[in-house]
Amino acid sequence: MQWPRTPINRLPIMAKQVLDLYELYNLVIARGGLVDVINKKLWQEIIKGLHLPSSITSAAFTLRTQ
């Protein structure tokens, strides 16, 4: 992590698989950044891009916090 340069102690897990933070970052940046993804509600596109099941009801919240 660039700022505040804190290491990731535990890998985030979603749908019983490790969440690829680099891929999440790239998908969000490709859609204009975090603010645009939140305002335009593009989380379903991000979920599809990460190949997560659409049945996860809290996926948008979980991804936003990661």
Automatic annotation (TrEMBL):
<dbReference type="InterPro" id="IPR045147">
    <property type="entry name" value="ARI3A/B/C"/>
</dbReference>
<protein>
    <recommendedName>
        <fullName>ARID domain-containing protein</fullName>
    </recommendedName>
</protein>
<feature type="domain" description="ARID">
    <location>
        <begin position="1"/>
        <end position="66"/>
    </location>
</feature>
<dbReference type="GO" id="GO:0003677">
    <property type="term" value="F:DNA binding"/>
</dbReference>
<keyword id="KW-0539">Nucleus</keyword>
<dbReference type="InterPro" id="IPR036431">
    <property type="entry name" value="ARID_dom_sf"/>
</dbReference>
<dbReference type="Pfam" id="PF01388">
    <property type="entry name" value="ARID"/>
</dbReference>
<dbReference type="GO" id="GO:0005634">
    <property type="term" value="C:nucleus"/>
</dbReference>
<keyword id="KW-0804">Transcription</keyword>
<dbReference type="InterPro" id="IPR001606">
    <property type="entry name" value="ARID_dom"/>
</dbReference>
<keyword id="KW-0805">Transcription regulation</keyword>
<dbReference type="GO" id="GO:0006357">
    <property type="term" value="P:regulation of transcription by RNA polymerase II"/>
</dbReference>
<keyword id="KW-0238">DNA-binding</keyword>
